[in-house]
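Re-run with default settings, no changes from the original entry. Doing this only to confirm the output is reproducible before filing.
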Amino acid sequence: MEIDKNALLEYLEGFISEKRKKRFLDVLKNRTNHFTIAMEDVYQMHNTSAVMRSCEVFGIQELHVIEQKNSKTIDKQIAMGAEKWVDILEYTNNKSCIETLRSKGYQIIATTPHDDSCFLHEFDIAKPAALFFGTEINGLSEDVMNNADGYLKIPMAGFTESLNISVSAAIIIQDITTRLRNSSIDWKLTEEEILDKRLDWTRKTIKDAAFVESKFYEL
């Protein structure tokens, strides 16, 4: 039986406050899948948690995490609840992540201070892009670098060649999302995506949500 998502949402929203419902709608107005972030084998999980927080704060809805070498859990103190509101997709290898993102229409952009990388302020925001980040010590793997459609870097004026990954990600995400919102590009979530996120977030807000939802199907 096909679920009437709108009817289900209306039912579930009866268990949350009007203020919470409005807050979901206000936040979703600024959410985007035009850009997405991918992180490769970041050893220190607090960095992944911090990047996740930046995604949430600046409106990036999806975070892709590749863990070929390390298996970690989210540092919830650093994420500060962002894991509830950002979609985290996990992969065991680079290939599956790149293929998945390409199939969704994203260009693969490697963030690196080396090579003839495009400077952040010159980056073309018109095309949907998946921005890949690696460790500050080793950077991104050859697999990602060789499969990238483009390269991006932050202009620097000091002796130090690289920033901590969470700092780099925050700078880049803030820049591209700000420019995106000031553009005429169609960057917002679709009505279907908004409906799905309202359902997801409402479920995450309700205590014993599975039990509450089961009552809907008995109506």
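The chain has a mean pLDDT of 89. The longest strand covers residues 35-40.
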